[in-house]
Specification:
116 residues; 3-stranded antiparallel β-sheet; single chain; extended; 31% helix
Length: 116
């Protein structure tokens, strides 16, 4: 069952099922909160850092793309929750386009000579 069901015990009773709960996680989960351009611990008692200067792309009001890029670059996975299917589709498209652009930017040759 999903951890997002607030009334899981009611659903379990309705389908006459046993309810099993666990706090086990195969990988650690780090929770942080973004307020404006700052990242805080999940208790909001400590500012951990600011966002990178690459934040603020048009169409990315929540600075999701640089946060995703930062996490993926560190070798970790990202799971983004959106309030609607349409929002999710648009955000996924924006993230994919920006990742593609960043991966395919023309890099100057190491010797400093023109690539032409």
């Amino acid at each position: 069952m999903s951890a997002t069901l607030p009334n899981l015990n009611v659903v379990a009773g309705w389908i006459d099922a046993d309810l099993y709960r666990t706090e086990y996680r195969p990988v650690p989960l780090t929770e942080m909160v973004k307020i404006g351009a700052d990242i805080y611990d999940c208790t909001l008692t400590q500012r951990l850092r600011g966002l990178p200067m690459t934040a603020g792309k048009p169409g990315d009001d929540g600075d999701i793309i640089p946060l995703c890029l930062e996490t993926v670059s560190a070798g970790c996975s990202v799971l983004v929750f959106c309030p609607t299917k349409n929002w999710c589709e648009k955000l996924a498209d924006s993230i994919a386009r920006e990742f593609y652009r960043l991966l395919h930017e023309v890099q100057p040759p190491e010797n400093g000579c023109s690539a032409y």
